[in-house]
Specification:
Order of helices and strands: HEEEEEEEEEE
Strand content: 15-25%
Number of strands: 10
Mean pLDDT: 82
Strand order of the largest sheet: 3-2-1-5-6-7
Radius of gyration: 28 Å
Structural class: alpha+beta
Low-confidence stretches: none
Length: 206
């Protein structure tokens, strides 16, 4: 009788231990999965902010230097789905040199830059007025409406796994949640004014 009772109690203890182990394994798996998702989301948000700030820095640099030559325009180049570079005049000598390129690589995670019919590299340049122009590797001008995506595509992007970064023709950089609709921004009307129009001949500039 005592042996039977002891065996019965031992059996119950083993079952209880197994239940606890299974629950612990499930909780641990969920915690690891949630931690991985949180890491990817944090990486996506950081890359999105860095990409937006890089575009704004390039625009400011071109406007500040009043660049006239295309090669001297500050620019952001999207080299691949997992990297981009920023080219600005860091040493302030009026030209952009190879040593002044800043490379950002995020190939170690699940974050990607996606868009419609992207052909890398894609270069976004800013002129002296701050206006933007984007072209792909074939030299074809494109609308720079891009998504920074976390394990998704254009068709599966939403507010929880992506963000949109868009550059208007006037150089305004927008950052929106994945499902937000981009505003319809038209190209600006530029007036051509003669250099000697309505100039007071008695006024000189030194």
């Amino acid at each position: 009788m005592k042996r039977d009772k002891f065996n019965s109690q031992s059996g119950q203890s083993v079952i209880e231990i197994l239940v606890v182990l299974v629950i612990s394994a499930v909780v641990t798996t969920m915690a690891v999965f949630g931690l991985g998702n949180a890491r990817n989301t944090l990486q996506r948000k950081n890359i999105t902010r860095e990409f937006k700030v890089s575009l704004e820095r390039a625009r400011f640099d071109s406007v500040k230097r009043r660049v006239a030559n295309t090669n001297d325009m500050a620019r952001v180049t999207i080299n691949s789905a997992t990297s981009f570079s920023l080219a600005t005049d860091l040493n302030r000598n009026g030209a952009i040199e190879a040593s002044e390129l800043r490379q950002v690589n995020f190939a170690d995670g699940n974050v990607r830059i996606v868009g419609n019919n992207l052909t890398f590299p894609i270069t976004i340049r800013f002129d002296r007025r701050g206006f933007a122009a984007a072209a792909n590797s074939l030299g074809v001008e494109i609308a720079p409406n891009l998504k920074i995506c976390e394990s998704c595509t254009m068709s599966t992007a939403n507010a929880s796994n992506s963000a949109t970064v868009s550059v208007s023709p006037t150089g305004t950089v927008l950052m929106l949640e994945g499902e937000e609709t981009l505003p319809n921004l038209q190209s600006p009307n530029v007036s051509v004014v003669s250099g000697d129009s309505q100039i007071n001949p008695l006024v000189t500039a030194n």
